[in-house]
Amino acid sequence: MLSYQRSKSLLKWPLGFPKIASFFEKNPPITPNFPRFFSSATAALIQGTPSTIEAKRSPNSGGFTSLEVAETLRRMARKPDIALAFFNDSKVLGFRHDISTYSAIVRILSSSGCKKLISLFSELILLSGDVGIEVSALFAALSRGSNGSDSLVCVFDALIKAYSNCGKPKEAIDAFFELGKLGFVPTVRSCHFLMNFLAKDGDLETVMAVYSQMKRLGMRPDAYTFTIMIKALCRSGELDQALDVLREMKETGIKPDVVTYTTFIEGMRACGKSDLGYAILKEIAKEGVHVDAIAYNKVINGLCKEMRLQEAEELLEDMTRQNVLPDACSYGCLIRGYCGTGNLVKALDLYEEMVSKGIGTNSIIVSFVLQCFCKLGMAFEAVEYFQRFKDSGLCLDEVLYDIAIGAHCKLGNMRDAVELFQEMKRKGLAPDKIHYTNLISGYCRKGEMYNAQKVFADMVKVNVEPDLVTYNILAGGFCRNGFVKEAFDLLDYMMNRGLEPNPLTYAVAIEGLCRGGKIKEAEILFKILEERGIAQGVVLFSAMVYGYLISGCTEESYKLFIRSIREGILVDEIARCKLIGELCNQGDVERASMVFKLMLEMHVAPDKISYNKLIAAYSQLGDLANARVWFEDLVKQGLNPDVILYTTLMNGYCKANCLEEACRLFVEMIERGIKPDVIAYTVMLDGHLKETLREGWLSIDKEKRKVEIRAKYSRLLNGMKAMEIEPDVVCYTVLIDGHCKMDYLQDALKLFDEMQEKGLSPDAFTYTALVWGYCSQGEVVKAENLVEEMLHKGIEPDTLTFSILDQGSLRTRSLQLQ
């Protein structure tokens, strides 16, 4: 027999069992008769096993029995770390654990927290097929050796968390109900964990099943239980049920807390029902529950995203009334919302209000304001405000510099743009491809291609990789400015760097060539691309059709459009609209109609603007039948006619002496709920006047016709007043002209004074109408004075004005000679 010292010196500890080794050092073995395949550590750990235990050892047992291992584990009950190490060590030695050994280690670990149990259960779950141990059988064994389920609470928690870690929601819920049948009553905490786990997986039905099981087991849900259910229901879009749960919560005597309400509000916002979130906030205020700014901000953000900005602003004001201080997020949501709608005045008012309250701004909010300036074409103002923000000490980031650089480039202030670019670098901010591309675009816009190319070279030199947008802008700049060879060299360079030009790149080149007057070069490029099989798609055909149009080649554009249709390609909306517009402008309604018909054959409806142009073109030609056909087709396509479309058709009928049909359309428009504008009323006023004159103003019924026309004018003007529509210069001119034609010169002069009092400046047509009125009354001197007044105001009289004046003078002299 080896001495203890000898056996100790020969023992080689496997890596990974240091705790067993440490235990071995402190507890030397005193039982020398264990089988040789046990390490002396194992022998020490299982010493004192009764000699009366005789168990059959299987070939896969590592040479010892489950009773021996279980007994050994029980002796380590107060040393869970060493017990777990022994449990794992025995597996490495070939022992196959069973229910008894697993239940032994679980009991030991349950007293030392859940982390080790979670790891143990996770391994058991993942290897369930290999281990052959059912969770229910394990818990049954545990229950037999415990004083009740209370001692297994930690075990139950660990099991549920292990299923979560392993991503097995179905198995988790199966275990939950199976163990319930065995008499295990989980804690509310375990139920919460399981419900949260299932809710994240989107399993609403099972979440509700767990809640029902809790009630069946006699468990009392708390505020967090209801909060989880509300969250799950909102995620599934079941808002009505979520409200029912909130009511049930109150009925059970549980007062919703801030977390519950915030969860509900967030759910409403996520479902696009921020108005309900707003209602909940009002309810909270009535109940006296203090809600922080986060909850208010969620609703404000939701309302802003739904474009319900007025309600969001009211909620912002309500925050102050509830003694909840708004923060930068509160104002930022509203500022972003108003900037998104282009209401810059409102956005700036809110910004000033925020600053006046001592709420610090940030670069994100400022970027909303500056971007809005740029989108509205107010690049100069964007630059001014950028400087103002800069002077205020605001920490500027790369985004703000990019907006300012882009604004300077749009204004053509390339020196200032470059200065900002250099300033940015001095501050340690690294320009990216967007900053470089903005500079390149600015130089291309000014035609300074040498500088654009230099910026591109600097960009590549500092390892900022250009993207397709950069290449497209530079290539387009080269083409527009006549540097065709350089454009193609750039494309070669682009491909050499492993970036393949896409159809958009070539489309930019084609459009750039056309804008630069290089239509022949654009045609050659398009032909080459066709031969290579590249120009077989919408993008390139659209570019060439549009390129012809901006070069004034409408005939060629139409022919290419027809050819593209034959090849099954419909050019994009921009090219289609421009083609229809150009054809209509040239009065070529036949071809414009053909474009419409071909589009409809391809199941693509033209837009409302295109319909308007075609209907206007037919109306201009006096072809009201076809104008009406396309008007009806617009309605057939599901497009709602607007006031512009109705006015266009009404004007056509008025010019075609069909006032009755124009009046019918006017009434139809109002019945559809479309509010007439000042132009529509002006068309109708002018139409009534001209019809009266055509029917014989100088007949014996002159006075009767004067009464009729005044009555019609009165009805129309009353309608304008009821709809709060103010006459503009054109409308006043029609009214003045009509009163002059009816010999109501004094009324015409009153209208003339009225329009000036409203701040409207008469134009040459207005003065000419009054000149005719004076001349028709024989007051040529006053007419001449009126012309002098025109000239004094810088209004140039036209030939009609002088013609009327000359005729008036001749008539006066003729009368004097008689």
What does this structure look like?
Keywords: Repeat. This is Pentatricopeptide repeat-containing protein At2g26790, mitochondrial-like. PPR repeats lie at residues 152-186, 187-221, 222-256, 257-291, 292-326, 327-361, 397-431, 432-466, 467-501, 502-536, 572-606, 607-641, 642-676, 728-762, 763-797. Belongs to the PPR family. P subfamily. 72% of the residues lie in helices and 0% in strands. By secondary structure, it is an all-alpha fold. Among the domains are: 257-354, Tetratricopeptide repeat domain (Serine Threonine Protein Phosphatase 5, Tetratricopeptide repeat); 363-459, Serine Threonine Protein Phosphatase 5, Tetratricopeptide repeat (Alpha Horseshoe); 640-714, no CATH class; 727-818, Tetratricopeptide repeat domain (Serine Threonine Protein Phosphatase 5, Tetratricopeptide repeat). The longest helix has 21 residues, at 702-722. The model is unreliable at 1-61 (pLDDT under 50).
